[in-house]
Amino acid sequence: MKQLFFEFILMAIFIIISGTYLSKFGDIIADKSGLGQAFIGGILIAMATSLPELVTSISSALVGAPDIAVGNAFGSNTFNLVILAFADLLQGKGPLLLRVNYSHLLSGLVGVLLSALVVFSLILSHFMNFNLSIFGVGVDSITLLITYIISVRMIYRYDQKNPLDPDDPVKEDSNPDYTLNKALMGFAACAVVIVFSGYRLTITADQISMLTGIDQSFIGSVMVAAATSLPELVATISAVKIGAYNMAVGNVFGSNIFNMTVIFFADIFYRQGVLLQDAKIVHILTATVGIVMATIILIGLFYRSRRSFMWMGWDAIAAAAVYFAGVYLLFQLGLNVI
């Protein structure tokens, strides 16, 4: 048992280190290719830091662990939103959301929409036994991918028409020693490490679940999700430290959007059936917790209250409280779900 936990921690460390450098190389690629800050934070860096979730969920699908695959996607979303609460604490006095642009409302709402689509699919498949598939891939998973593609295009076009405030820090070339090709090679090397680490992390998590009796839903939604979300934590903290608050928030919301497409790719590699049909209904709890947290943060972004407690906005405090309550409920349910 100790060896399993040691390997789990070791693979998590590999993901942290590789994910951190992956985010750095992604930033360099976006900067040197001239894609701009909005694309950096909301799309490219979000996709880069979400690669661990993608690899881990695909690996879970390959070994026949649908609950770890789905739980990882939803659990990562909730953990990412807690990162915003932590970032709020680090950035100093006053709520973090006072410092960011209204345009993040769009990406936040898209994340809520994608999560709601998965909840709707889980309800249909478990209570109405309704599930369509094309070549073994659920229509619900395909719908998620199509919605994601349309939404990313919409977000990109909106950001082009409504650029971030001119007062936001302008990115300078802080990596003159890196060429675009060198950054691409570094990005690929980090991706290889993450692929290996994510696969081993999934195998280890599955074995821990079997030996401890803890449900796969809890393992995937909390342990694996926290491990694979650590690159987002590092990237967000780094952005806050340099005052790039829009990039920090954009990274979190963008990662949450991309995490929902992870279900589609995991469904492709899950050959025992249709992923969301075989996943347990308990994932609705994790999804609902994420939706509630995102809604609280979006309300805070729109209302822009200046009140805070211990340097944190009340929206961040409320979101964190919902997260920990959800983890407790999921653990209690996980002990009893068969």
From TrEMBL:
Localisation per UniProt entry: Membrane
Membrane-topology descriptor: Multi-pass membrane protein
Alphabetical GO biological process terms: intracellular calcium ion homeostasis
Residues spanning the membrane: 6-26, 38-62, 68-90, 102-124, 130-151, 183-203, 218-240, 252-270, 282-302, 309-331
Alphabetized UniProt keyword annotations: Membrane, Transmembrane, Transmembrane helix
GO cellular component: plasma membrane
Stored InterPro entries: K/Na/Ca-exchanger, NaCa_Exmemb, NCX_ion-bd_dom_sf
Domain of life: Bacteria
MF (Gene Ontology): calcium channel activity; calcium, potassium:sodium antiporter activity
PANTHER family per UniProt: INNER MEMBRANE PROTEIN YRBG, SODIUM/POTASSIUM/CALCIUM EXCHANGER
Name by which UniProt lists this protein: Cation:H+ antiporter
